[in-house]
Amino acid sequence: HVQLVESGGGSVQAGGSLRLSCVAYAYDGYCMGWFRQVPGLEREGVAAVGRDGNTFYAEHVKGRFTISQGNAENTLYLQMNSLKPEDTAMYYCAASRFRCGYGGTWYTPSRFNDWGRGTQVTVS
Questions:
Q1: Which long-range contacts (C-beta less than 8 Å, at least 24 apart) are formed by 36-44?
Q2: Phi/psi at 25 (nearest 5 deg)?
Q3: C-alpha distances in angstroms, 95 versus 111, 114, 124?
Q4: Residues 95, 24: Cα–Cα separation, whole Å
Q5: Closest by alpha carbon to 60, among 109, 107, 114?
Q6: pLDDT per position in the chain (124 positions), as tens?
């Protein structure tokens, strides 16, 4: 049973930075990603990385966010720079048994099998 545990959220002023971390236990899939959700809105993809190292980003975070994997493949990071108030959301780590984009787009939540509980990011 895959378990994902996020950390690193918090409150920061606009223009600041945060680094989110995710540890995946018992994970042996092909794609991991970060999603975010604001109450009342749908969960949206932020970034994803495949086991082959290919990365994917939502347009509104390109150039500001960087997704990466740790030396151990079961760790995932999201470096967030130049944060804006509209980046405020609950951020979720997600893992898929399939390659990024298989059967849909990389940012389709239903293509991810396992989810963390989320970590709150607040930008003021």
A1: 36/87, 36/89, 36/90, 36/91, 36/92, 36/121, 37/89, 37/90, 37/92, 37/118, 38/88, 38/89, 38/90, 43/92, 43/109, 44/107
A2: -100, 140
A3: 9, 5, 29
A4: 8
A5: 107
A6: 889 999 999 999 999 999 999 999 988 889 999 999 999 999 999 999 999 999 999 999 999 999 999 876 689 999 999 999 999 999 999 999 999 988 889 999 999 999 999 999 999 9
